[in-house]
Specification:
Layout (H helix, E strand, L loop, with lengths): L31 H4 L14 H4 L10 E9 L1 H11 L5 H7 L5 E15 L2 E15 L4 E21 L6 E22 L2 E22 L6 E10 L2 E14 L4 E4 L3 E8 L3 E10 L4 E10 L8 E12 L2 E10 L5 E11 L3 E9 L7 E9 L1
Antiparallel strand pairs: 1-2, 1-17, 2-3, 3-4, 4-5, 5-6, 6-7, 6-8, 7-11, 8-9, 8-10, 11-12, 12-13, 13-14, 14-15, 15-16, 16-17
Organism: candidate division WOR-1 bacterium RIFOXYC12_FULL_54_18
Protein name: DUF5723 domain-containing protein
């Protein structure tokens, strides 16, 4: 771990899995189909990606479905590995790079999902690593790796009063694991800490669709991270570097207990299809609650999809965050032919090193 997480400045808040990570760190790229539409999926999701966007979407999925996907900011990850590939000690790195300024960062996420008879099992791993070192004698680092294991259940209702309407309900039961590591270093010593978190949480979702002869539309409401508190243990050590001998002395580890409560997020979504041209338009608004380590904020997702036979073209926008820290543009395409293949690109207007490529593939019947 020390060979990778060496001397970088903390970017944003250091928090754990699936939570309110700032620009470039929140996994908006979970599932390339909806990543291409700016993550505006709460009212339209109909596959195993429901585990992330809206559990009610599992009701409209196939009887059997498998999906695999991944996304990463590859430029930042490659730069990090190049810079730190041969580093063994933070204080030695400070000594060797006093006059250098370095700014790289990277992130990744993935989705592995299986749906059988409207029961979904999904694993979503997420990771991030940031590095910013100004010229000088001090530095700090933070890295995070986390995952959610999710069981998704759904139930569909018809409405006798309005036969052209349907109402789908869904719930996620989640197990969350996370590890966060930090390093603070100068020319003489470094303090290293690693915290391992685990806990459970729940998501609830509802999605209503009304098909009319005019304009069909769908609406959705999702409440994420209900009762999600992660308990953790932090182990910390201090290493002292002697530049004269090139040796490092490490103190015995100290151990403390800690916990993090995930902010509840309320998502309101809507979608419609424009008659005649078949253009699908979707919008989501995420309202992320405050916690002891961050203030409340909102994120807006806008997306469009245009079908062309077996091909679909997509585009979207993501804006908001704390003090407007999130500004992303997305584009994507999908091919449905004996299964499906989707690809998307997320371009971060705040930091181009956070630009992500996302893909997924799978089948359903």
């Amino acid at each position: 771990m020390k060979r990778i997480i060496v001397v970088c400045a903390i970017l944003g808040s250091m928090i754990s899995a699936g939570f309110a990570l700032e620009s470039g760190l929140l996994p908006y790229g979970v599932g390339a189909k909806y990543a291409g539409m700016g993550g505006a999926a709460a009212a339209i999701v109909d596959d195993i990606s429901s585990a992330y966007f809206n559990p009610a979407g599992i009701v409209k999925s196939g009887r059997v479905e498998l999906k695999l996907g991944a996304g990463a900011a590859t430029e930042g990850l490659a730069d990090i590995m190049k810079v730190f590939g041969n580093v063994s000690d933070p204080t030695k790195f400070i000594a060797d790079n006093v006059s250098n300024t370095i700014n790289v960062n990277g992130n990744m996420n993935a989705l592995i999902g299986l749906n059988i008879a409207k029961i979904g099992l999904t694993v979503i791993p997420v990771g991030s690593l940031a590095f910013v070192k100004p010229a000088g004698f001090n530095g700090n680092a933070v890295a995070m790796m986390a995952y959610e294991g999710i069981l998704t259940l759904g139930y569909g209702l018809s409405t006798p009063i309005l036969p052209v309407a349907t109402l789908d309900l869904g719930a996620n039961i989640k197990y969350v694991g996370a590890a966060a590591a930090t390093v603070a270093a100068n020319l003489n010593a470094s303090t290293n800490s690693v915290t391992n978190y685990s806990g459970t949480g729940f998501d609830l979702g509802a999605k209503a669709k009304i098909d009319t002869f005019a304009i069909p539309f769908s609406v959705a409401v999702v409440i994420k991270d209900l009762g999600e508190t992660l308990s953790g243990t932090t182990k910390a050590t201090t290493s002292t570097y002697d530049p004269a001998t090139g040796t490092t002395t490490t103190s015995p580890a100290t151990e403390t207990n800690t916990s993090i409560t995930a902010p509840q997020t309320i998502v309101i979504g809507a979608s419609t299809t424009i008659p005649g041209i078949g253009l699908k338009v979707a919008a989501d608004i995420d309202s992320v609650g405050s916690t002891s380590y961050q203030s409340a904020y909102t994120v807006t997702h806008l997306g469009v999809e245009y079908p062309l036979a077996v091909l679909a073209l997509r585009a979207g926008l993501i804006t908001g965050g704390t003090n407007g820290s999130i500004s992303m543009t997305t584009i994507g395409a999908g091919l449905n032919f004996f299964g499906n293949l989707n690809i998307a690109m997320i371009m971060d207007g705040k930091n181009t090193k956070n630009n992500q490529m996302v893909f997924d593939t799978g089948f359903a019947f």
